[in-house]
Every structure is written in structure tokens, then in C-alpha cells.
Write a structure and sequence with these properties.
The protein is an alpha/beta fold and 616 residues long. The protein contains 20 helices and 27 strands. A hairpin with a 2-residue loop joins strand 2 and strand 3. The longest helix is centred in the C-terminal third of the chain and has 22 residues. The radius of gyration is 26 Å and the shape is globular.
Length: 616
């Protein structure tokens, strides 16, 4: 959840660290801190609040910012409230060892008791301060090197972490390690860049090593990387990969917020997800992970899809698609629940795990549980080289590009696009979809990005609706069939960035409780496309109108019936029901954005949230 940045080389470290922290704020922004090392010592500054507050404090306190070695951290609070003391970096009792850390140490309390008995004291409420003092304790007791003390401590630690450790007496050596939290290492001639992801150093180097779980690296200024296994100190040969990120992908450009930019990128990201996979003239769908495991999918008795948050909503759409087009029974599970019960899984089961980051802690744990029980695991994620991508049996990248806004948008439609391709491909293999329907859906899918682009042009009319309802306290979102999960996603987006309470429901379920909430102050967003229980939806609208509820309807172009009943209408292009979520979600994303923007909220960095949930 937190953002780690570090530099060891010949350049001025401060601008690299401070700008890196700004690019990592999507990972956490409760507090931030920086440590810079120079010939005669080091300077440290940390504060509650965002990175711009850290900059102000550095300059107002005349903190020395020279040096070619530095580390920085932006925090999403787990242990200890957001304040200056709990902010990273943390320093050991001797003031010699300095650490930044992402993750949670589950046995920190037991370790803290041992340290207290041995005379250690603590200023913060964090597990990280316990961690760095544990390393110091081992170093002193064993009279070992810092490298060895770190390795011994990591074999005693229970939990998840990515860490950066420096001894101020020897700052030209940095030790990093990873278990369960992402850590990337950029490499250039005579310099190293450390970060939670590659975005902070992409403009310096395209050479990257993704540390694997259970690995640590010793970085020495001007020398080659020393990569080792934590458990046995076995030396490893690093695998260097080439980054393909374009700098424009991580800049806002003409947009005020990344979220709005990413909403408007969806015509392109859908095309990028389809590129090389959908060959319309030949009527062919190419997905290597399916083709190389053809018999597994043909013979599948059931599929379980596991995910969290927005990815869970995409999974629900996947359930409709796979059951409708491939005739396979599908269950959708929250990863956080799936991993803590005893699911009935065997070698005949297919588990699909979905995660934008590929690092979601609960989803990764569910993946490992499924593999342990012998299931075939297929992954859908966006980040190349992520933990989920490395651990699945097969999978597909969404190719949505970096998503900086905390509220997921383009990753959602990219995931749906992959799920549509999977359902069509598997349905073709299993002969559960006839040739004509298959061909028509493939052709329409190839044109869907144009319909998404057309829908984005409704932004001005959505702004007008947003101005009417930006001060309400509650929203209700309704949909039926494959668009019920879209209603859930629309409600989530509004909650995440505007802090307005919103709930999504199947439209028919309002009579079983939620209708009690309807009055003249309750706006109801209803997805009322012509396909999928259209007449039933009209009945639901009439029930709401009879109770003075305000209707914001998503309808197809040419709609007459719903348009005469609704208070506000957003018209979208016609599409088949199977592909409609790619279009219906767009107005809901824009509505959430515009309401939050009018309310003056920080759209990209909503309170209490972080982009990648790498801790439980």
C-alpha cells in the first residue's frame, strides 16, 4: 500500500526521491518522509500529509538536501495513526540504521516484547520501528554485518514486506528485500533506482529487475548487484527486463485529474486489449493461455473467479458471460473470504484470479491456496511481471497501461474485454455458441471502442445532472442481468471519490427492502437498456416514480418509454446485451467524477484509500 523510493548513484538524489514520491502518492498519502545521505552524515525529514507538505517542511526547516544517496516513503497507515512520528523512514535506537517499509509484520508485538526486555525504547506505534530495531539487536548480539543481520531477521519475521535498509556509517551500501509486497529495481551504469513500481524511474532507465518473494539484494555504489535467497543466502543470477512504459502514460497532460484522463483513454485501452487477440476477418480469437490449455477449458466442470473491489464487479460480469456463452457453471468469490475458508477445490477445477496490480494481497493468497489444492489457475492482470502474473499457470494481460487514479476505471473495462474474449473462445471450443452469434459478437466487439468514444461525448450533459445532485446524502443504483454488476461498480465509484453513500442493487430487489428508502430526496440511477428485461425495468421505474423518487436513466439511443418517465436521461449507443457493460459503465464513471469534482474532492487520492492493496 505504501510507496517506496530509493536512489544510489552519482546524480543528485533529492529531486529523484521527491519527484518519485509524488508519482507514488497513489499508493498512500497519509504521511511522507525522506532521508538523504552525504559525506558527513544524513538528513531526515518526515511529516503527516502529502508530499507537498514534506517539501514545505524541508525548505522551512532548511533541511540539507545534498548527496547522491537517498530513500523516501509515502504511507498508507496500517500500524499507528498518520502523524509525524509514525511516518517513515524509521531509525534504530542507536540512530545508525534507517529503514523504509511497505507491508505488515504480524509478529511485531512478540518481537517488541523481547526488545523492550533488552532495553530498547520506541517513539512510534509502528511495526516498522520494531523491525529496524530487531535488525539492530541481531547485529549487536551476533556481531554480524548488516547484510547478515537483515537476512537473519527476515527469517524470523512473519508477515509481508518490502524493505530498504541503510547504515548511516556505510551509506554506499543499501539492502533491499521482498516478501508479498512489490519492489522493483532499476539499473543503469553505476546507479540503482529502488521503487514500489517502475513509474518513478522510467525516465532514467528501462532496465528493471522485479524482486521475487524471498529475495534480498545488496546494492553497493559503483559495483554490480548482489542478489540472494533470504532463506539460505544462495547467490542468484538477476533477470533484467526492459520496460515498455511511455512517459505520456504517466502524465496528466490536458486533464486536471488522472481519473478523468483514464476514463477518456478507454476507447484506446479496449483496442489495446483486443489487439492481436481478435482477428475479425478470420473470425479468430487468439489467447495463448487458453489455446495451450485447450483441453482443460473444454473439460471444465466449473470455474471459480476470485477478486476484490472493482475486479470483483468485473468478475460478476464474467460469470454472466461464461455461463451464457460457454455454458460453464461459474461462482464468484471475494478473495478475502475465499482464502480463509476451506473451499472445495481439486485438479478438475479452474480458478480465475483478477487483479489490476497483480499484487493484491488477498487475491495472491487465494491463488496460492488454489494451486496448493491442485487447481488450474488462470490470471487476468494489468502489470507485467507482477506477483500474480508470475504465479499463475496461464493468463492474459489487459494492456490498459499505468492506472494512476485510485478509483479504477480503464482497468475495469479492460478486464471485461478479456472476459468477453475468454467466454467467446471457450464457448467456441465447447460448441456452446453457434457460428452466427459468435461471428456477430466478434464483429461488434471490434467496433465497441467507437461506441465508448461516442458515449464519452455525453460528459457535458452529465455535468448538468451532477450539479443537481452533488449535495445529496444517498444514491441508489439499479441494474438487471449483466448490468447489475455495473450498478454495483457505479455505486462504488461514487462512494470512493465523493464520499456520498451509494448502494447498487438488482432492480427487482428494491421491493425486498430498498424501496423503503425512496422519497423525493433519493436519486436513483437505473440502467435501462433495451436488451435484458426492458419491460421489467419500466415497471421498476414506475414503482420508484410512484414514491417521488428521482430517476437518472441510462438508455439506448431512440428510447421513448423510459425517456418519458425519467427525470434525467443519458443516451448511449445500442449494443448486444453481452457487450453492453463496456458502454453502460462510462456514464456512471463520469457521473461519479463530476459529482466529486463539483464537491471539491481530490479525485485521484480519495481519503483512506490506496491504489494497490498489498496488505490484508
Amino acid at each position: 500500500m505504501c510507496g517506496i523510493i530509493g536512489y544510489l548513484g552519482y546524480r543528485d538524489a533529492y529531486p529523484i526521491i521527491i519527484n518519485g514520491l509524488k508519482k507514488l502518492e497513489y499508493r498512500g498519502y497519509d504521511s511522507s518522509g525522506i532521508a538523504l545521505f552525504y559525506k558527513d552524515g544524513y538528513s531526515l525529514c518526515k511529516t503527516k500529509g502529502r508530499v507537498n507538505e514534506l517539501e514545505k517542511k524541508i525548505y522551512s526547516n532548511n533541511i540539507k538536501i545534498s548527496g547522491t544517496i537517498g530513500i523516501g516513503h509515502t504511507r498508507w497507515a496500517t500500524h499507528g495513526v498518520p502523524n509525524d512520528l509514525n511516518a517513515h523512514p524509521h531509525v534504530s535506537n542507536s540512530n545508525k540504521l534507517i529503514m523504509i517499509h511497505n507491508g505488515i509484520i504480524e509478529n511485531y508485538h512478540a518481537i517488541k516484547i523481547v526488545l523492550l526486555k533488552n532495553g530498547f525504547t520506541f517513539k512510534s506505534k509502528t511495526d516498522t520501528e520494531v523491525f529496524i530495531n530487531f535488525i539492530e539487536y541481531i547485529k549487536k548480539e551476533n556481531k554480524s554485518s548488516l547484510e547478515e543481520a537483515v537476512r537473519i531477521s527476515l527469517n524470523e519475521i512473519i508477515g509481508a514486506y518490502s524493505i530498504v535498509v541503510i547504515d548511516k556509517s556505510h551509506p554506499e551500501t543499501i539492502i533491499i528485500a521482498k516478501l508479498g509486497s512489490p519492489l522493483a529495481l532499476g539499473i543503469n551504469d553505476k546507479e540503482f533506482f529502488i521503487a514500489s513500481d517502475t513509474i518513478p524511474f522510467v525516465n532514467y532507465t528501462k532496465n528493471v529487475i522485479y524482486l521475487k518473494d524471498g529475495e534480498m539484494a545488496i546494492l553497493r555504489k559503483g559495483k554490480e548487484l548482489d542478489l540472494r535467497k533470504i532463506i539460505n543466502n544462495h547467490k542468484l543470477n538477476p533477470i533484467i527486463k526492459k520496460l515498455k512504459i511511455n512517459l505520456k502514460q504517466i502524465e496528466k497532460g490536458e486533464y486536471k485529474y488522472f481519473m478523468l484522463k483514464e476514463i477518456h483513454e478507454q476507447p484506446k485501452t479496449i483496442l489495446d486489449t483486443l489487439r492481436g487477440r481478435l482477428l475479425i476477418p478470420k473470425g479468430i480469437i487468439c489467447i495463448d493461455g487458453i489455446e495451450s490449455n485447450k483441453n482443460i477449458f473444454i473439460n471444465a466442470k466449473s470455474i471459480t473467479i476470485v477478486a476484490c473491489g472493482t475486479s470483483w464487479h468485473a468478475s460478476l460480469i464474467g460469470e454472466y458471460l461464461l455461463e451464457e456463452l460457454a455454458s460453464i457453471p461459474v461462482e464468484v468469490e471475494y478473495a478475502s473470504e475465499f482464502r480463509y475458508r476451506n473451499p472445495i477445490i481439486n485438479k478438475k477445477n479452474i480458478i480465475i484470479v483478477i487483479s489490476q496490480s497483480g499484487e493484491t494481497a488477498d487475491t495472491l493468497a487465494a491463488l496460492k491456496l488454489a494451486k496448493k489444492k491442485g487447481a488450474f489457475v488462470f490470471g487476468i492482470c494489468n502489470v507485467v511481471g507482477s506477483s500474480i502474473a508470475r504465479n499463475v499457470d496461464a493468463g492474459a494481460y489487459t494492456h490498459a497501461g499505468p492506472e494512476i487514479g485510485v478509483a479504477s476505471t480503464k482497468s475495469f473495462t479492460a478486464q471485461i474485454t478479456i472476459l468477453i474474449l475468454l467466454a467467446l473462445k471457450i464457448g467456441k471450443y465447447r460448441s456452446s455458441i453457434n457460428d452466427n452469434r459468435y461471428k456477430c459478437l466478434c464483429q461488434e466487439l471490434g467496433l465497441i471502442s467507437e461506441k465508448v468514444y461516442h458515449t464519452l461525448k455525453k460528459d457535458d450533459s452529465i455535468k448538468k445532472i451532477s450539479k443537481v445532485y452533488h449535495n445529496v446524502n444517498n444514491f441508489l443504483y439499479l441494474g438487471r442481468g449483466i448490468n447489475f454488476p455495473v450498478a454495483l461498480e457505479g455505486a462504488l465509484k461514487l462512494k470512493e471519490i465523493s464520499y456520498i453513500h451509494a448502494e447498487g442493487y438488482p432492480a427487482a430487489e428494491i421491493k425486498h427492502g430498498p424501496i423503503a428508502l425512496i422519497d423525493e430526496n433519493m436519486p436513483v440511477v437505473i440502467i435501462a437498456t433495451k436488451k435484458g428485461c426492458y419491460n421489467k425495468i419500466i415497471g421498476n421505474i414506475q414503482e420508484i416514480k410512484a414514491r417521488k423518487g428521482k430517476i437518472i436513466a441510462i438508455v439506448n439511443e431512440g428510447d421513448i418509454q423510459v425517456s418519458t418517465l425519467a427525470d434525467h436521461v443519458i443516451k448511449i449507443p445500442n449494443s448486444s446485451e453481452e457487450l453492453s457493460p463496456l458502454i453502460t459503465v462510462i456514464p456512471l464513471q463520469l457521473l461519479a467524477y463530476q459529482i466529486a469534482y463539483i464537491r471539491g474532492e481530490n479525485v485521484d487520492q480519495p481519503r483512506n484509500l490506496a491504489k494497490s492493496v498489498t496488505v490484508e
